[in-house]
Amino acid sequence: MSADAVGFALLILGLALLVGKMIRVRVGVVQSLFLPSSIVAGVLLLLLGPEVLGRFAGPWGENGVFTESMVTVWSSLPELLISVVFATMFLGHKLPTPQRALKLVGPQLSLGVSMASAQYVVGLLLAALVLVPLLAAPAMSGALIEIGFEGGHGTAAGMRPVFEELGYSEGADIAVGLATVGIVGGIVLGIILINWGVRTGRTELLTGSAAMSEDERKGVFAEGESNPAGEMTSRPSSIEPLTLHIALISAAILIGLGILEGLRWIEQQTYASVMLDDNTPLEIFAYVPLFPIALLGGVIVQVVATKTGLDHFIDGELMQRIQGWALDFLIVAAIGTLSLQAIGDNLGMFAILAIAGTVINLALFLLLAPRTIGRFWFERGIGDFGQSMGVTATGLVLMRIVDPEAESPAFEAFGYKQLVFEPFFGGGLVTALAVPIIFLTGVWPLFFTMLVVFLVAVLSGLLYFRPREMKDRREWEERRAAADPPPST
Question: Where are the domains of the chain?
Fold first, then answer.
């Protein structure tokens, strides 16, 4: 593929974002739903692309109004841009003390692990009681909810060789279909939840569309309103500040890539020679994605800059703007290249797993988030709900809607959780090993293991983190009441 084709595909993404912004400014229902321009643009590309318009006969081809090279470029962007999003998460920000990190990560990790392990518990139970005996499905189908929902399209595609080696090649197709339903359902249900949260006072930062100005509903600033996007930390005669920050992000991602490749090399030199069966080697880091390690690379760059006294050259606001650019392009590309074909295959099993996964994610968000997280429980919990439905990017989308200026610790806590969470779930160790383990041992060993993990995560949140978190919430409510007493009658 030529560089011109890649560049033109990116130009069309930019144009789609501009159209999406115009729709946000002009259409009231889009404003009332807090839909970002990137989601609007992504839906527009989906409708005009191969999955919708391309399926109808007409003057356009099988790719709709686009070319095959455009769709190919767009489909590869989310995997690349998610590393940019995570590499920038801590760059330009003062790193927290270990005490603050532990305080934030505890309840967040409890909620995230509860949702991920519950997908195995529910999926494996359905496999044992319904899918295997009634639909003649392989026992490995019990892992599809977590692979498709928590893992997403990248994990589903990455697990395809494992499914093929174990004689269940259609499992990867079903997982891709579940990933599609997860992203769409996560965004739709997330928007519904956010609107419900705003109207019922459960969000702390969004206060309801009725109280918003017209500019806020449109997502624009008033003329003359000062909103700096960042500070000049380098003289342009030496290097443009934006160029400097992109270079630092590049270093962070390369450090993460080096760490991941090093771990994969060690794996290949040691336990990868152990065969789980005749054809499947014991590989862990082969299935670990780059983006959580890129986050670690960003932390390393920030630590080095702080220790050497160079951290003042990294501007947090500018890093957030770069992160926002990457996230906008990621969202448009991810939604615009959704695969709708897989949804029509294996419809019975697919519907059962999709409904079960959606219900358990929604129930755990509503039941656990307000009981394990104190302040900003909605802003923080909605990210885990989005991730459990449609991969990490969906969680970031929902957090950005409910906390557009990153005023809460939601992004910070979510990032800390990812460092511990991602090596295991959503494409990590547990995801990589689940299918071979089920193939070798059947449903029940992994079911009981995940049941124990689920119970430990839930009970630690309710019994250990809840008292401290509720105390923080009460103290904040008391301070707010004292600062804003009710009017006298």
Answer: 79-209+233-470
